[in-house]
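Inputs:
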Amino acid sequence: MTAPILEATRIVAGYEPGLPIVRGASIAAKAGEITAILGPNGAGKSTLIKAIAGLVLVSSGKITLADADITETPAHQHIRQGLAFVPQTENVFAGMSVEENLKIAVHILPKAARADRLEKTFALFPDLARQRQLLAGRLSGGQRQMLAAARALVVEPRVLMLDEPSAGLSPKFVASVFAKLVEIRQIGVAIVLVEQNVRAALAIADRAYVLVEGENRHEGTARDLANDPNVAALYFGAHTERAA
Amino acid sequence: MNLQFVADGLAMGAMIGLGAIGLTLTYSILRFANFVHGEFIAWGAYTGLVVANGLIVLSPKSGSFGPFSFGWALLIGLFAAMLCGVALALLVDKFAFKQLRMQSNTIVLVIASFGLSLALRSLLEFFVTSQPAYYSRDIQMAVPLGLGVRVTPDQLLVLALAAGLLVVVHVILTRTHAGRAMRAFSENPLLAEVAGIDGAAVVRMTWALGGALAAASGVMLGITVQIRPTMGFDMLLPLFAAAILGGIGSVPGAVMGGLIIGLAEAGGVQLFGGSYRAAVAFLILIAVLLVRPNGLFGRRP
């Protein structure tokens, strides 16, 4: 059994000192798997993923990436260590072209490798390759999510974390974004996905964690959680009853 | 109406535009109105004066060339002034604003910058007195360009220098990683951090670029007008007007805003007299903001 590449253990984190939103939650993610973090509004899902990304103050707990402790690592260093994060909103530089968005990110790689990585990423996202010079602000919602993912993937991270990639997208775009995540999983990247769209997330995830009030309430394989009537009834209401 | 105002306005507008670039970058990346920016202009102008005069003493032939009132000595002085602008800007950030940014809100930063501006101006005045100084006291003959427009060779060279610096800034911001990082951080600091951009490095680059351009603008102002310890403070209103008119955060906007303010001031002087110079520029600023509240090139917040 493979060991998790990313582990966040007993994380306490929040935006104000003394007012934690995440209260001891733990997750682990393995290479080549999609790990979903689910739960009702206010459960602390987004805060947990931002804390792992270094954007929210962690007051206690430990975060390791391939056994290296990154709890205190500044946010801008994470991508160099192989941990990429795609925020929920404003996740592209709207005033810059599609190509510039990727060039910003790929710069952390050695000069000789940059052009090759850029072309490989465009090959993975052919829709973006056709619009290299277009301002990112003029892309559709789905294309923006693709560009945000491409910006994170261009440096070949070991872990890709996404905060609600389906937010604000039409069902058609949600399907294409999630299909792309499945494709990315196949190249061995560990994907951590925070989602409100429980049905869509459980359909592609391998494992899932359900947070409530900043703590782990349920965890297991996506299939088990999707079929667990307690989970469905308690946290997802009608969303997953049919899926289950 | 005599077209002379176009030549005078473009020369002044280019200097305002250069100064406003640093102001608009500081405003959009550090999120506060930086009054110290004016002092980079004055300190730059005096550094140019000290270095140029020193070189002229060592080599009198470096004092002027061709039809210009200045020579290699002042061009080296310009380079030294830009270095002084960089150093002063980085020192100001390191010892004053770095801590304040982490601990205080915008109002505190603005008031601190106002106080520091006063202190730096007084210090400069202590060293150089309040008497005006000049790079050269030679009187230049203006060259007729046609349509009643006359310009001095100095004005033409200043315009060319300003245009050259603007091209350099454009290349830095659009073709280099440092420039892209500054634009990215200005647009979205959190996303820039997760994309691997070191925010502290971007802040240092912003201060350095702004300081260098402000100091260059100070030397150019000294060449075409005169040098005084208050010259930077006097430029602050046109600089802010240019940055706001162009749209906060937009470098092309700052340049365009500078040229519009420069032309408006020169036109205002010709039509209504020198007393209404600033009033005309600000009436245009108000009129443009009524139509485009975010400025000519500004993004919606």
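The interface with chain A takes residues 177, 180-181, 183-184, 187-188, 190-199, 299 of chain B (CB under 8 Å). Flag for discussion at group meeting.
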